[in-house]
From TrEMBL:
It comes from the Eukaryota. It comes from Hermanssonia centrifuga. Coiled coil: none annotated. This is Uncharacterized protein. InterPro entries: P-loop_NTPase (IPR027417), TPR-like_helical_dom_sf (IPR011990), TPR_rpt (IPR019734). Gene3D superfamilies: P-loop containing nucleotide triphosphate hydrolases, Tetratricopeptide repeat domain.
Amino acid sequence: MYGRESIIEQAVQAVSAPSGHVSIMGTGGVGKTSLALSILHHPDAKKNVFGDLRFFISCEGAESGVIGIWRAIVPELGVTETKLERYGLAILGKLESMGPCVICLDNLETPLEAEARMTTEEARLQKNTVQSFLLDIATLENVRLVITLRGNQSPKDIRWPLRIPLKPVDVMSALAIFKDVSGKDGDADAETLVTAVDCLPLAVTLLARIAQYEETNDVLQHWNEKTVSMVKEQRGSDKLSSLEVSIQLSYDQIQSEDAKCLLRISAMLPDGARADLLDSFASHMDSRSGWSELLYLALGEQRGSSFHVLSPIRHYVMSKYPLDPQLVLLLQEHYFSFAENGNGLIHPHIWYSRVQEMGNIEYILLHALGVLTDERARLSAAAESDLDLAEGSDTLKFVRVILQTSRACFGFMRMADYINFAFNSQQLIALVTPLCRWLYNCDPERFRHLYVRCLQLLLETTTLRNTLTSAQVYDCRVKTLAVYSLCKALGQSCCIREATSTEAYICLSNCNWKKAEEVLMVGIQSATDHHDIATMREMLAKAMMNQKRYDEAIETLQLALAHYQDIQDSLGQANAYSTLASVYRYQGGNIAAEEGNLKLALAKYQWSRTPHGQSEAHLTLGICQFDQGKLAEAETNIRHALDLHVKLKDLRAQATERFLLGIICLQLSRIEDTIDYWKPIVRNEGLHISDENHAEYLERIRDLLQEKEEALKDTEGFGELAHIVRDGIFHD
């Protein structure tokens, strides 16, 4: 029971005490049954207290209320009574005649729900109730009662010394479950997989069973495509072999339409539904009532002022019970407005308040883009030249909806760019690019304003750093520059900064420094916006640096810094300080200035809360300090960089940092630490280093060991390190 050790110990202590009844509550698949069995089979419970008098009773089939519980208990206790109406008394008599014993009633919600559905006449004929029977058991001095049930409420009128509202396990425990079941190490793909299901034990276990026969990255890909429908075993369709069945059982417990509506809304919001958002749905549901019911059923949890639903439940609800289209439009209206406000934001304190809902905005935007992509496929059934773009036509409405959605997407990406929140803009580009062509081919003069807006969106998208890979950005900028040329032929004077930056980027990528400088000088002279001027000056400095005109590059960057400071753009300042440090490094002879600017860059990245910027600044600063022999400071900074890159899942950077940290520890004669840092590199464990880079790392490590062998050969652990490296080289 990974991640449950302390809870088990606490529960065993509770049941060992007089009247030590335990109630285990939670959502489906969270591990209630497994926890109850672990308590019953714990060595202390078996040897020291109850011996063989430990009874596990499944109430899953108890569809007839208390009578169903009686029927499940009778054979387990060996009760000989044959008359159904006397089962209850016979069970109590049998329990009372025993020594200290513990009885677990698993899935108690089944008989409780069955009883709640009974008519008045059916209830009268039963005479006894589940509640009264539980109370009778709880009053027996020698009996300890353990129950499990879905939801967050224990049966009333019984004193429960220990109530356990069970939650999913932590990531490390989920990875341990995955490794134990699948037999595979918990690599980056496994961590992504268990995180995707919010570390729900049943989901992790079932996915791990699939991973016994498939590669982990293949399982992850299948999860991304199929979500909860893949998390089941072929052997059956009970709640322990299918996540769908388990979630459906919980969903069936919902009584009110308010709760169902809230669950469907929350399912579309991975960061949770905020209370102020739910107020806008007041005419469609009573969110307070629905909130209380879902908390009671453990179908969600409250985090601050938001209502959250676990990932597997979210995916299942969206698949089986999609939200009404009118309510989807309300969500889009709210989050589109929220996202568009991100366009042009440069003050961290403004956009940081939005960070908590970045996942919500992203999902709503991607959902909208998905719908538009389907609509585009339908409209494209006709030849593009035959598309009807008359006023009021479906196609023209479609174009305008795309522009509205795209505007929101760009505003969101602007925010995402500041905090390094990765948003894949490929889908947006795939929608907007054909629009430019459609509008131009149909009637460029008539649709000039729409055409220009499409073009602006396309160009602006490529100015963001974290939405595409370098190769994708380059390809997209080449295409958008061609589109810009078409617009320029129509006499449009829009997108000067975007077009200039795009052309300069292409020139810099091709090492055409002179051409980049010419383009940027023209752009700077025609620009009026401080941010645009600062951005182009920063690019200009890079062109100058690569032409070894270091003094001019420094002067240009100082001008860019002045512009960034005027508009209080902390992230712009951080980037400029970082570039300035690079100029000093290439120039040589002023390592103090390089270190000073890197420290300023790091401080600004920290203020801007940009993890990518912080990680790169820590790494570069650490290398600078290493070159000066400041090993302790270098180790601290490179260690910070490694920790950040682990969180960011940047494996390539992790390999670099492990290599550098190993060198530092080797120089400090800390061989054990060197082994810890270098072993994953030598064995290429979890870092996915290419064969070429792996061979290069091995060669450099071997050379370093040969240099240090004479001085360190008698140091404890050096022989083990050399052996590991030799094995790695031989294996490679």
